[in-house]
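User: hey, got a sec? need Peptide deformylase folded
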Amino acid sequence: MILPIVAYGDPVLKKKSKDISKDYPKFDVLLENMFETMYNASGVGLAAPQIGLAIRLFLVDTSPFAEDQDLTEAEQKALGTFKRVFINAQIIEEDGDEWVFNEGCLSIPDVREDVFRKPKITVSYLDENFEAHTESFDGLIARVIQHEYDHIEGVLFTDKLSSFKKRLIKSRLTNISKGKVDVDYRMRFPNQKKKR
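Assistant: Yep! Here you go:
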């Protein structure tokens, strides 16, 4: 089932999320719905807060990036096959010189800005079977993980912008929070009531 994506301005996007256990109710259905929602919105990642749940869960599928002709064949292959579920993730280490990339977010449609992040990360997490992993990632895969990880920490990519950039996009952010945005996927805006 395609779920509405929570828009900028909703308090759930600024909350630090809570860990979950393997007895989380209807977990398989939740995962299926999140993947369906992400693909419907043409996203490469989706975090639980973006569907209104303050839990430490996000998913990543970087395959759309694999079509970039500027990448090496090895990079295209890595991006084309990377699909993961991250539960109770913790970034243990971030390493290297920060690099810039133009980021966007399904909760903040039509806003894209340059964000600086470290190129290499080490993450401990549980997969969809609640099995533990500690892995290192780099490049675009690391960046997508960092972006989604920020969501479960209550941080948005716009929080990483300079105060000057924030002032420049303030009216656009206000419009998004008021529902004055044209998107081709379902959204829930802060002033809308939840539908049961």
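Quick note: The radius of gyration is 16 Å. Let me know if you need anything else on Peptide deformylase.
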